[in-house]
Amino acid sequence: MALSKEVYKEFEDVVGEENICDDPAIMPAYFATEFAAVILPKDTAKVQAIVKLCNKHKLKFRAISTGWTGVFPKNTILLDLRRMNRIIEINEKNMYAVVEPYVISAELQAELFKRGLNFCIKGAGSNCSAMLRGHGHLDQTTSADDRNHLAIEWVTPEGEIVRLGSLGSSDEWFCGDGPGPSLRAIISSAVPPGVTPGVFTKAAIKLYHWPGPSKLPVVGKSPRYTLREIPANMMARYYSFPSVEKMWQAELKIGESEIAYELMGFNASMVASNITTCNEEEEEVFRRISQEVQGPGFFVIIAGNSPEDFAYKKKVLEKIVSDADGKSLKSVEDPEIEGILLCQCVRISASIRETFRAGGAFNSIPIMGQRDLTIKWAIGAGEAKKPLIKKGLIVDDGGAFFGWGVEQGHLGKTEIFCRFDPLNPEAKKAVEEWRKEQCARAVNERYFADLLMAKIDESGPSLSNYHLWWRKIVKELDPNSVSPEGGPLV
Amino acid sequence: MIAHEKLSDIVGAANVSCERTTLDEYSRDMSFVNTVRPACVVKPRNAADIKQLVKLANEILTPLVPVSSGSPHFRGDTVPSIGGAVIVDLSKMKRIIKVDRPRRVAIVEPGVTFGELIPTAEKEGLRLNMPLLPRKSKAVIGSLLEREPVIMPKYQWDISDPLACLEVIFGTGDEFRTGQAAGPGTVEEQWAVGGVQKAPYGPGIASWHRLIQGAQGTMGIVTWASMRCEILPSLEEPFVVGSSNPNTLLELAYWLIRLRMVNECFILNNTNLAAIFAKKWPDDYQDIKAALPAWTLFYTAAGYEYFPEERVSAYVKNISDITQRLGVEAAKAVGGVSANEILKAVQRPSEEPYWKLRYKGGCEDIFFLTINDKLGVLIEAMNDLAIKFGYPVIDMGVYIQPIVQGTGCHCEFNLFYDPGNPGELNRVRKLSISAVKALMAKGAFFSRPYGESARMILNRDAATVAVLKKFKKIFDPNNVMNPGKVCF
Amino acid sequence: MALEDYRGDMEMCCRCSCCKFIPMQMVQGAEYSYACPSIAKYNFHAYSAGGRLNIAASMLKKGFNYSDKILDIVKNCQMCGACGVSCNYAMDMEVLEPIQEFRIKTVEDGHTVPALEKVITSLGNQGSMVPVTGKRGDWASGLNLKDATSKKVNVLYHVGCLTSYDKNMQKLAKATVNILQKAGVNFGITGDAEMCCGGRAYQMGYKEDFLNQAKKNMAMIKKAGIKTLVASCSNCYQAFKVLYDKYNLRGDLEVLHITEYIARSLNEETLKPSKKVALTVTYHDPCRLGRLGEPWIHWEGKKIPGDRFVFDPPKIYRRGTHGVYEPPREVLNSISGIKLMEMTRIKEYAWCCGAGGGVNESNPEFAMWTANERIREAVSTGAEAIVTACPWCEKTFNEAIQKNESSLKVYDIVELVEKAI
Ligand SMILES: Cc1cc2nc3c(=O)[nH]c(=O)nc-3n(C[C@H](O)[C@H](O)[C@H](O)COP(=O)(O)OP(=O)(O)OC[C@H]3O[C@@H](n4cnc5c(N)ncnc54)[C@H](O)[C@@H]3O)c2cc1C
Ligand code: SF4
Ligand code: SF4
Q1: Taking CA atoms, which of A399, B83, C259, C420 is between 20 and 30 Å from A126?
Q2: What is the domain partition of chain C in residue ranges?
Q3: For a substitution probing ligand 3, which of C53, C96, C348, C362 has the most ligand atoms within 8 Å of its CB?
């Protein structure tokens, strides 16, 4: 349904004719959804005006930042926030940055490096919005999920502007909580599939110290960038262990001793994806590395704030690894490969190699929370991949999973995925079944409940019936039902 | 008047009291809120009791006021705002449910105090990220729910830390568990497979504990909560740095925290430091105060399992580079107060009597959050006001606590007064209200609005209040949960 | 290959948006992070490469329902190829090729842009991509250059339409001639007989017109027995070297850009820049000399059934790795007094000048906008001048600078070499 001329005109009056389009031909550029129109607001006031119009005409709307993911009902008004791409403030003294939704992580990180700072970048990649919540390679030191937001500016589904915390009371971005209960409870910015109704227009993000250079000395040509030299206060290694238990022992100790700048529990297959430039090379390198590793492992970056600090961290790392019978992967000791990984895993630039490059699709079960618990579950989920690998339906990764420690091991994340060719219906179905079975097992055995793909009504009852409360909240916030829920990841 | 029997049926007759003396105890606190006598005090034994109490309260539309800590209370949040209320005193729920060393987490019921939890945690090799010297009767959960600042900002990743998960009976009478605790399965079932209740976010994209925190019991009653714990260091080296300029100390603290070199880290003015460490009153207090620099930064460098000496010595060296640059000096003692003594003290609750009451018997706290840049202006403004109201500035305690890994700081003015002296009391009361107003105008953020100033504070942010009211409608539609508090 | 042949590649697009930006590791801040002028200016996702691929894929499935918006999207793309480089950092898929085929299809389906139609008509009538005044070889009058069609020469200098006809650009031809002479090269030109390479027609989607030019050119070259062609225009260079090869028309003709030729001469010491040129410059990599100057890779094969998007025989992608980046820099660095300051977006991820893909003709305002962005970036390096290696870039930059009253100077690299020898 295209909008009526009159309604279209009302939206057009808000953003100008060059910033609205309802030509059905452009819609596939976004998602496989027929949007009623795509609108490009420039600022919060425009977003508010659009949302108010949506309420007036009872039109559903949703916003996207870079628009990688999301599922949208037909006839939604899509607010593409591409024009809202300003870094509003980098406050070094109080360790936060304020950004609009279309500032991508790579942009913000580069600006931060110049000031000796860094922030949490989603493992998805630095091509994503810096503002949205998420978790990634650097979580060991940069925390994750909804824990990095300070004040947030939010346009409610009804079109009110709410400025959380200190922003609402004293026009400062440093705190998002209060007065009284914290609205961050539900206004945590977006990550699919659950999306807070309304639109996030700005957020302050917590910053962290960056011990590396103001600009990484990247050399080489795409697709093989590496570092001219490894910064003197940094080191990257991949360690494999004889068993999951030993690996976990080492990971735990590394967290407790607060020595890792990054701890990324890559499996051998992901190391291969990262350091290779095409599918064929990846297959070959994976085969080689699989022989080299003794079992599961992880990638670590240590970084010293001073020569003493670096020496100390290195010494502790070596001790922990040796206590757990770990073995360093020789390939990664090669400074070129070390440089490739160091750069990629700090600038978060190769997750597409790990996920989409092989077959064009992947289906994943990511779980945030308690690392040892989820590892325990993931071993079984990995085993269950093996028959699919054998049948050639999914890419051979040895039945591996991956994950990482968060906040020096206080929390963690584990994830497991299958990569396949989406045009092969048999593979698609087999992977979907694998996913379903493993998620069902997770609930039945009390590990966790999947929220990524499951319908909220399916997962809710096993999770304190949170879905009922969530629905009530949404209903209160969105009386006209114009702000539809997110859907599973595309 | 609620039927006494109905309450007795729920919690047992021994746990219900409508005696006037008992009721009087709950009808006021150390703050300036109006005295309102509750109708009854009940002491539930478990979550099931609480659930029934909430159901009953909804049926007969009676306010419930949850209380975890023992007296004295300071913020007015546990004093009923309207008559006929039932105090739900949770002090009998005293189980330490779990302390898990590898996962660094502890789970407690609302009645557990710091003094009780600390030794149990220590036995497992864990420690708590504490508020500064809480009173002995302070319940751990009370502190967690109030978003009290903690003295190890390095370990406060999020302002909700160290709270992890909780179980709550909403105002509707429904039970709910937040974060990882939500499920699947019961808590016990989660334990059986190796799960603990630690990850705070979820279920879904919400972080439900944030809604309960800071609510002053207006959303529901918490029946247990888990908190993240830190590892007990194997070596600790505390230091003090004195200065006449709080900004220099703030900058030092900024770098110590940014580089994650220190555990405990806070700034006190001489009044507060003396109030904490004076043994013989009042001489000792005056002497210490006179000997102290105007401001003292306290911090600890620590080592854990591996080569702790090397770690500490590396930090000490790196820190001295910074202190040199700033023209200050780290020492082991200041004005007769040793760093070791401070360290020992702040790892426990306050000795009795509570340090804030030792000087004059009463203390009114004015506290807010701000960014480092604004702190100087706010302290000056407070000093000016104190002078205007005739409160001796030198008597005013100041506590500056960097929060959330350095993204701001909690600033607290402690106005010591003699509650038996009506003139003093009145002066402090007036000063307190004016101060909140004046500081707010200068950009102080009162994130935890209590007592008489709450309305004024919330009035500044109508948009937030509007959303909060929507939530309140959902979780406590009959407004039985501590009515009159926050903006409800 | 036709658009259908890229169905698999287009289906591979994961909507990651990397094609909008320079490779993530190279992003140096909030400024100069975009690679694609089209998305940077027009904002709707449809203007990015990913958007284009998804639209094309959808049309393949659902039919080609053209609308004004679609044609607007198709034409507002410089065909600069930056998208492909960024995408191919991580993905194994063709990006610019399907975009090119989509363009060709719109033209074949008769959905053309009047401004481009005009250019192509004039190409047919007058053999030039730019307005014709006088004769093509007028610039060389009095220079006594060899006619390569009749005299035996080692090198054919192909001048190109813009350099030949544009009064402001003829200096580049003269400089090139000067350099070749100084280097003692036995070269010639074809003067009035020179024909448009067809490369820019191809960028505009006019494949047949391009092939027509290509065939005519190669016939002449063969006839004249020319083994090596030197181009000073990057469009010509890419057409002869890459596009002719793509359509199996190049044979064994060696194609060099003048910067490559100069670099070679420097190495062989047949050319020695001796004069100092005191100037702080920044170098703009022309798209078609840089990333798109990468040799064509002939490949034909089939997807191997199974989990991966891999082929038999393996497909090697042109990812921008082997473009011509170093020779122009070597040349600049060989001139004493020149200080080279690099911009943020260089080499394989350089930002386009704005002139490509017919945008110069169909939407001059967009071309100017794109050029302005580059000027801003150049100025940010502290350079006094922006140096390029293509007359189209020079022209576009000059126009942008004039409109902006910027004090930045614009040179083609041959102008600086000419000063130095
Ligand atoms: C290959 C891959 C790997 C991934 N790995 C990780 C990972 O390691 N860690 C992780 O955390 N996530 C991961 N994800 C999910 C990822 O976080 C999101 O895809 C990413 O944040 C998307 O960023 P975006 O800018 O494209 O958001 P978008 O796709 O634009 O938005 C995501 C959702 O949020 C909504 N939304 C976006 N902006 C706003 C706004 N301003 N206001 C209201 N709603 C909005 C959208 O409607 C959409 O539903 C991964 C995804 C992919 C595809
Ligand atoms: S074309 Fe490539 S870079 Fe662009 S969105 Fe698609 S996959 Fe990503
Ligand atoms: S060719 Fe250039 S302008 Fe066209 S989509 Fe790719 S990057 Fe954008």
Answers
A1: A399
A2: 1-111, 124-268
A3: C96
